[in-house]
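Example record used in the benchmark description.
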Amino acid sequence: MAVLAAACHAAPAPSQPDTSQPDATHANTASVDASATDAPTGTERIADVIAPDEVSKVLAATFTRYSSGPCPDIPELARADTWTKLDDLQERAYRAGLFRPRIQQRILGDFTAPKADEALYWIDVGDCARTDFRHQVTVIFQRSELAKDRPAVRLRLERHTMVHVLVVDVVKRDGLDVLIAESGRKRVSLRLAPSRTWFEEPL
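Model output (structure tokens):
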């Protein structure tokens, strides 16, 4: 596919892409202090605006390549008349780097194990071949890793959903942190299951 091949390039380390997107939520500005021993509590753990150098580092560690400029026109999108064709087109565009990721939130806590001292990033992938489903990626780093030039991702999860998810609080349960989120018109809890998937429960 010519359009997909032409726009393929290695990801640079850009600043936060397109802050004018309608999904953007701006409330707190913070950066990770990797030397901190005590994480903030509750809503203080949540940051909606992230420092540009931290954004660049996290996106480079999460994605091999992605688009930092405007999405190209994808003529095949208008001709994809079934969900199967649309899903295939979106997957090929994703592999070609045709998406514009945006970190929506960063949450500090212990997600994979008690006292793990981690930073979780909730990322909207921003597919150029957009469908009714939102493509979201969650990555978790040990906070000490973020002091490195190339931090290692501890855990990476992907999900597709039709609603916008916004984390509004963090609570401790059995030594692990659980996310309290607004998902569409309802409030849910999201916890990391032993299978390393998000387990969602209504509140």
